[in-house]
Amino acid sequence: METVSVDAPIVYLTELTGMRVDGPNGQRIGRIREVAIAPGEHARRVSRFLLGSGRTAFMVRHDQVRSILTDHVQLRDDSFVPYYPDEGQLLLGKDLLDQQIVDVNGRKVVRVNDVALRVVSLNGHDELWIQEVGVGFQGAFRRLTEGVLPASLIRRLQKYLKPNSIPWDYCNIVEPDPQRRLKLKISHDRIGRIHPADLADIVEDLPPAEREALFETLDDHVVAEALSEVDPKIQVSIVEHLDKERAADIIEEMAPDSAADVLGELQEHTSQEILNDMEEAPAAEVEELLEYEEDTAGGLMNPQFIALQEHALVKDAAVAFQDHQNLLPTLTHLLLTDKKEHFIGIVPVARLTIADPRTPLRDLAVLDTITVDVDAAEQTVVDLFNKYNLFTLPVIDEDEELCGIITADDVISVLIPDR
């Protein structure tokens, strides 16, 4: 991996724009109007310097530069050529300044005020590599005072301002144009590893075009988890702009109760189109939930749970875990039923870890478990969780058959409706 010395001089983009360019013999060539990186060649190195004014622009390659100082750039040769726009190049002034980017490390959307570049000496000539982007007042101060105050004075004054910058390695640009995104080799792999709740915050802070572009590049499972956390109004906007087949794939990846919440916010014909494109089993689960009123236990519950008959053994539970690995991250209890599938109790998962594999689950069960009717009001559910300090609440119908479960996070979403 290439590294840059921390002692290498820093040049800011605000200083670089308008900087004098001299030829090999010291003759004045012009001034820099823009610089570009070509991510396909090098992720950080400035590959092109654009000179000229108005509609006329000439291009100087990075390997034509001899030295880069704080007040001018000197070339090794002056054989520059006209500049033509190239979608494979990122213009730092046009494409980065004042644009919103994702700070992957800080897990937030920020606006770029300036760019810091380090001077790197290689093989007898200088190059500029992006070091970090300024997102605080210090960068804004340089922008406001550039051309008004001498550069040396700006540098002295900025020392009194608190810096706020993001290393370039943690910056992720969101490019709406898929063809340009491909040419710039923009990847959102690191964004996909952010916690779904943080990714939801990022999505909500992005403009609609960038929001949709980001979701286009992430896999269905990541989008599904983030979409579950997004504000309902934004959920609707995102899903309505997705291709119906892609929307169906994403909805299938969501927990049925979250999927029902999303589809319940859409126009009925849009919701039905997505359901028609879904696989039969997940579509049936979601359609069943959509039949319940939103503010009832049925509207809150998740129909996916692990239930075993009362005479099953601990080793049978281990097999069930293997068959339902998607439920394990949030699983706290097993549910027990009799032969007629009537609910009779719950088994805390923690008890299974110290039990003999041949132990009947009924011996580990809590049989006087609190339950709630599928048509019970939402407030009744909240009151039960509060009164009995519940983690899981089984939902049953009038025949005492299991319909689903409500967990603590479902209740939190009721108490904090904006999230």
Description:
- It is a single chain.
- This protein has 419 residues and is an alpha+beta fold.
- It folds into 3 domains: 10-169, SH3 type barrels, CATH 2.30.30.240; 188-291, MgtE N-terminal domain-like (MgtE N-terminal fold, Alpha Horseshoe), CATH 1.25.60.10; 307-415, CBS-domain.
- The protein is 37% helix and 23% strand.
- The protein contains 19 helices and 21 strands.
- It has helices at residues 13-16, 92-96, 137-145, 151-158, 178-183, 189-192, 196-205, 208-217, 220-229, 232-241, 244-253, 256-265, 268-277, 280-290, 297-300, 314-323, 349-352, 378-388, 408-415, and strands spanning 10-12, 20-22, 28-37, 46-51, 58-61, 65-68, 72-75, 81-82, 90-91, 100-103, 108-111, 114-122, 125-134, 165-167, 171-173, 307-309, 333-337, 343-348, 372-373, 392-396, 402-407.
- The strands form 5 sheets. Strands 2, 3, 4, 5, 6, 7, 8 and 9 form an 8-stranded mixed sheet that branches. The protein has a 4-stranded antiparallel sheet with strand order 1-12-13-14. Strands 11-10-15 form a 3-stranded antiparallel sheet, covered by helices on one side.
- β19, α18 (378-388) and β20 (392-396) form a beta-alpha-beta unit.
- α11 (244-253) packs across α13 (268-277).
- It is elongated and about 95 Å long.
- The model is unreliable at 1-5 (pLDDT under 50).
